[in-house]
């Protein structure tokens, strides 16, 4: 039965690719179709989940490219400034009172957690320390210590892993495995999140948890070939995730950003017409959702660079000054913690990529084709802020830059 299920999804993936060529006004070319099919090796269309090699967690991770002391807050400072620091992701501060309320209602939160002894203050202190590690950019330590603290520690641990995967891992393959590991682990907890979905005391925790799951899937999907996106049902998982975040916390800045970026990303990959007909992606949703996010938290760097990306994906060359305006807004933000710092660094890198596209390519799609081909040939993670910005020479001769 599993073989037939894979066959049906494979047929749907390939059928969509061919069907997109017949949609009037759709810009998906024959060359792009063959590139996407070439990007999708058979093994990628046999497994819904990316196989994860656990050895990637045993080596020493790269250090973040800033001094940890820059974002090192005492527990008292964290409590005082928490709402400002978490304005985007809206994670709840792990006070003893909140922990006791949620653990008494949902004891699964600390099942198989020897670190929890019934002392809520001590457990709160341990969790605050994990968040402190995460805030200052000690991602591997945050992961290792967070995984010892049940689901309350799991989510800052997995967000730390997600940020490391996106912004600091060298290889695209390693990035994908780390993100898949986050999704795999988070998926196991979805039944608990369903139970807590309508609990107002758990709302921020549920939204943060769902955001982590959907964000990991989205960062895999945004650079995957269209057949893989369809076969692995990424779009439905991501859109459902964005809806679930906003169902828990309707005024969630990154929830609205995510909802907008999902539709923009769909149209980036398959065009406006196919995106609207196959997935209901609409430019109006993109604009409205981004405006909701800007009204809630205009200074988040990721919001500004995602909007800039959406302008690039959906606009014309004459719209690029607007994209640069929002990249500039992202890079002008003074970071207050590790996620903001990495988002600012990536916004600067992404803006330089878009400038390369303007200078050397007739269209965004032609640039994207070569960018994806470069990643396929070299296994470079192009969102890694530790590496130099992509160059035209690299795009034209990817075989010279293969990672060993």
TrEMBL record:
<keyword id="KW-0732">Signal</keyword>
<protein>
    <recommendedName>
        <fullName>Tetratricopeptide repeat-containing protein</fullName>
    </recommendedName>
</protein>
<feature type="signal peptide">
    <location>
        <begin position="1"/>
        <end position="27"/>
    </location>
</feature>
């Amino acid at each position: 039965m599993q073989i037939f299920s894979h066959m049906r999804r494979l047929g749907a993936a390939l059928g969509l690719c061919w069907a997109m060529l017949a949609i009037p006004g759709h810009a998906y070319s024959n060359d792009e179709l063959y590139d996407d099919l070439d990007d999708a090796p058979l093994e990628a269309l046999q497994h819904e989940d990316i196989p994860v090699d656990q050895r990637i967690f045993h080596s020493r991770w790269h250090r973040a490219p800033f001094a940890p002391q820059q974002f090192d807050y005492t527990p008292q400072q964290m409590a005082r400034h928490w709402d400002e620091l978490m304005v985007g992701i809206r994670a709840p501060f792990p006070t003893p009172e909140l922990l006791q309320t949620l653990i008494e209602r949902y004891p699964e939160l600390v099942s198989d957690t020897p670190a929890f002894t019934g002392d809520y203050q001590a457990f709160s202190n341990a969790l605050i320390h994990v968040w402190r590690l995460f805030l200052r950019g000690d991602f591997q330590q945050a992961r290792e210590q967070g995984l010892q603290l049940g689901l309350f520690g799991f989510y800052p641990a997995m967000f730390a892993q997600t940020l490391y995967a996106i912004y600091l891992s060298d290889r695209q393959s390693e990035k994908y495995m780390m993100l898949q590991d986050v999704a795999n682990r988070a998926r196991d907890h979805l039944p608990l999140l369903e139970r807590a979905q309508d609990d107002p005391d758990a709302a921020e925790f549920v939204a943060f948890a769902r955001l982590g799951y959907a964000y990991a899937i989205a960062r895999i999907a945004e650079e995957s070939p269209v057949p893989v996106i369809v076969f692995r049902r990424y779009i439905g998982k991501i859109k459902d995730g964005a809806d679930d975040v906003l169902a828990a916390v309707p005024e969630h800045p990154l929830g609205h950003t995510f909802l907008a970026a999902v539709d923009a990303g769909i149209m980036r990959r398959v065009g406006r017409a196919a995106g609207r007909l196959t997935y209901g992606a609409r430019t109006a949703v993109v604009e409205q959702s981004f405006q909701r996010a800007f009204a809630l938290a205009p200074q988040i760097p990721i919001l500004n660079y995602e909007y800039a990306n959406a302008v690039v994906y959906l606009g014309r060359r004459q719209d690029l000054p607007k994209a640069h305006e929002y990249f500039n807004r992202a890079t002008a933000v003074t970071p207050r913690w590790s996620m903001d710092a990495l988002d600012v660094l990536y916004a600067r890198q992404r803006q330089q990529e878009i400038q390369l596209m303007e200078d050397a390519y007739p269209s965004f799609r032609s640039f994207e084709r070569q960018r994806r081909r470069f990643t396929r040939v070299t296994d470079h993670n192009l969102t890694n802020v530790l590496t130099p910005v992509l160059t035209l020479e690299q795009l034209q001769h990817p075989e010279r830059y293969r990672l060993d």
